[in-house]
Amino acid sequence: MITIGSRKSKLAMWQTLTVAEALNESGMETRINSMETRGDRILDVSIAKIGSKGVFTEELEEQLASGTTDIAVHSAKDMQSRLPDGFALIAFTKREKVNDVLVSRDGTIDLEDSSRPVRIGTSSVRRKALLRHYYPHVKTVEMRGNLQTRIGKMDSGACDALMLAYAGVKRMEYDDLIVMEFDEKTFIPPVGQGCIAIEASTSLDTAKLSRVRDCLNDVDSEVCLLTERAFLKKLEGAALYRLLVWRFWRVMRLFFMPVLPVSMDSRLSAEKRVVPGKMLKR
């Protein structure tokens, strides 16, 4: 039996049920313990201002440490760059498209038209900075909550559109509301976006760990995510802000990392720079 810890939101449960289904198909029984985390409960303050890197993970890690659960399912982009002692990321599922999208009921929205005022809902420091830099005529509106809550706020008139990760929009089947896809080479996504990460205590039974990893881990996604996280950790950046890194595959595993330093007031502090990396050996 594999006991899985998860947040209660619809997107989190979609991810967890997908993981559970894969484990079940490989012959393992599963049970899900769902819960709300601090990041789910505090909705009147932006994540950047809460002050903790683990607002979506701390309670799930407490369950792992106590042995209540065997693994926890996370959106990889929610993971802090340095895990607390006693925990490890043991698998990464196949990564979805990494780019951001604009979602709206109004299919005529065009961000290139600077004469038309547009209000975009987002609480992300990164997204605000990129919108301010490339579309200075756009007004951003603070927007917290799960995907369904945000769309409800948009429908009630709080904003004209939402800037979201494509992966979550697709998984929740809101594809028909996408009015624009942002180029990931310009609107650089955060580390881990589009991928599901599996966390466990370092004391997890090795047989369970091996079975979970063999069933769930996608090697290409793992190499990509570990590279991004290692680069971020080296520069002491939090996964939420300060540095945006995305790893591009190149011929013979050569990669390049566009880097966008971002201040806490949602401003880009420098133009995009390309940092050459080393060849990866597998």
From TrEMBL:
<comment type="subunit">
    <text>Monomer.</text>
</comment>
<dbReference type="Pfam" id="PF01379">
    <property type="entry name" value="Porphobil_deam"/>
</dbReference>
<dbReference type="InterPro" id="IPR022417">
    <property type="entry name" value="Porphobilin_deaminase_N"/>
</dbReference>
<dbReference type="InterPro" id="IPR000860">
    <property type="entry name" value="HemC"/>
</dbReference>
<comment type="pathway">
    <text>Porphyrin-containing compound metabolism; protoporphyrin-IX biosynthesis; coproporphyrinogen-III from 5-aminolevulinate: step 2/4.</text>
</comment>
<comment type="function">
    <text>Tetrapolymerization of the monopyrrole PBG into the hydroxymethylbilane pre-uroporphyrinogen in several discrete steps.</text>
</comment>
<dbReference type="GO" id="GO:0005737">
    <property type="term" value="C:cytoplasm"/>
</dbReference>
<dbReference type="GO" id="GO:0004418">
    <property type="term" value="F:hydroxymethylbilane synthase activity"/>
</dbReference>
<protein>
    <recommendedName>
        <fullName>Hydroxymethylbilane synthase</fullName>
        <ecNumber>2.5.1.61</ecNumber>
    </recommendedName>
</protein>
<dbReference type="GO" id="GO:0006783">
    <property type="term" value="P:heme biosynthetic process"/>
</dbReference>
<keyword id="KW-0627">Porphyrin biosynthesis</keyword>
<feature type="domain" description="Porphobilinogen deaminase N-terminal">
    <location>
        <begin position="2"/>
        <end position="203"/>
    </location>
</feature>
<keyword id="KW-0808">Transferase</keyword>
<comment type="similarity">
    <text>Belongs to the HMBS family.</text>
</comment>
